[in-house]
Amino acid sequence: MLITGAAGSIGRALAAGLSSDFQCQALILFDHHDHGLLEIAEACAASAPDTQIVEALGDIRDQSRLMRIMDRERPDIVIHAAALKHVHMGERHPGECVRTNLIGVRNVVAAAEQAEVQSFTLVSSDKAAEPVCVMGACKRLAELYLGGRSIAGARMRMRSVRFGNVLGSSGSVLPRFEAQIAAGGPVEITHPDMERFFMSHDEAVDLVLAASALDSDCLSRGGAYYVDMGPARSIVELAQELIRRSGRDIEIRYTGARAGEKMSERLFDDHESVSPTPIEGLFYASPRVESACLSDAELDEIERVTRHLDDAALAHHLFALLDRKLERSARLAG
To answer: Active-site residue 262, yes or no?
Structure first.
């Protein structure tokens, strides 16, 4: 099994859970962050001495490096967790977001197909549903690209899973609020009406494993699995709860919503059909028609645009393409 983004918060949780509980024969940990990769490789080796742990230093933007590693290691399963995940950074640097979160997905898929990987799982985001930010648009198009590859006849079984905000992950609100409270405040929130879906690291790992275990026609339709996380939670209420637990008098300060942020996220949108799965609480959201999926030729055009247009023009192209595909999906679905 190979995990990309293994040094990130989600990759670490997956690597730790899979090495200790899944008892896979070999676990290949791929990341470009050398110190983080060394840490998680050593932790997995200590917790799972019977599992062969392979550290693979590299960048998902480097397709030739990916292909060499996969050809050498021949994993049967790939979990693709590497990504740029901060919405506001994606808005400020859309080209970088596209190169990692969309072109990078194609690189990993191509390397996995060449190495005859049997199963590929993309870690996506609830921001892919009704996307308004570049990061969300990239994630949605990446989901649709997996569908396009399946339609084109790929033998590898491919699926996507949509995460909510993973509590305690790097850059998430929980550790940031805790640090602000420890410093005496203020706790900074962009908008009083902001709310998000939350899940634990264990729930994130369980979602990947549950979706990966399913064998259904859903895999070829370019959609994504998601788990019922209950109602979205108020960010203000979360901050207030943490402040109460601290026993301190901490100010909450509103800084204003940032570019690309929505007040509330969704797990699926109006361009998708939702189906239950045999696993309780697990659902599949899929495009209403096959033509919504993204072809290799369309991704080639996105890559060309990324090289030649400025950031504003690139973002416009990205959303225009996505709008055309989803609107066509809605029209054909009738």
So the answer is: no
